[in-house]
Design brief:
This protein is mainly alpha-helical. The protein is built from 10 helices and 2 strands, in the order αββααααααααα. The chain has a two-stranded antiparallel ribbon. α4 packs across α8. The protein is globular, with a radius of gyration of 18 Å.
């Protein structure tokens, strides 16, 4: 879900708002044992590994800097942006973003291409001092990453690099898909159990199925 962040806010304050608006919990879900990768309504659960958590902390800050939404198209856009800007030694970010860009080609190719080109003109925060970033203002963080600058037109080199990245992304996406498909039955069972638990909690609190409905409507996240 898209929201706005005042330039004078600290990144720590902006991150708290980001978590609240997107219903990610006070800790952003960093301490969850499992996470759901969703293809439409179908959840594919996979372990919330230390490598993913390490990347996700910066990924969430990037949403604040770039204003890309946390819906499906927004996640495809930020995947392309991060690839263009570079993910340094964050392997999980490279893998997840390559799959996200490949999927975005079939949903919003123009938006994904523009995000990739924008990333090529800016810098990601991967590998920078995290606590320093949280203490900085939104304006200063955007200035450091270059996301406050006007967007430039694409060049022939951008087109070539995007085509190469897309090809690699399709290969990675197919491998990743083959790995998570066997987890589908487990994901469906876990989703059913989760909804039942939320319904019981809603009944206890006198809210019926409201909690379950809102939880199932939570936006996807890479």
């Amino acid at each position: 879900m898209r929201t706005t962040y005042e330039p004078e806010m600290t990144m720590r304050e902006a991150l708290a708002r980001y978590f609240a608006v997107n219903q990610f919990g006070d800790d952003g879900g960093y301490n969850d044992a499992w996470v759901d990768f969703k293809l439409g309504p179908v959840p594919f659960p996979f372990p919330n590994t230390p490598a993913r958590i390490r990347a996700l902390r910066y990924h969430d800050l990037h949403h604040i800097l770039t204003d890309y939404d946390t819906d499906t198209r927004g996640e495809f856009e930020i995947s392309a942006w991060e690839l263009g800007a570079g993910c340094r030694d964050f392997t999980a970010a490279w893998v997840l973003n390559l799959g996200g860009l490949a999927a975005g080609l079939f949903v919003a190719p123009a938006r994904v291409f523009r995000a990739f080109v924008r990333g090529r003109r800016t810098s990601s925060l991967y590998g920078l001092d995290y606590e320093r970033l949280l203490a900085s203002s939104v304006a200063d963080a955007r200035r450091e990453a270059g996301t406050d600058r006007p967007r430039a037109a694409a060049t022939a080199r951008d087109v070539g690099l995007f085509a190469l990245t897309a090809l690699i992304g399709i290969v990675v996406g197919l491998i990743f898909f083959a790995m998570v498909v066997p987890l589908l039955p487990f994901g469906l069972v876990m989703t059913a159990l989760r909804r039942r638990a939320l319904q019981r909690l809603g009944s206890t609190n006198g809210t019926g199925g409201t909690r379950a409905a809102s939880a199932s409507a939570a936006p996807p996240r890479a």
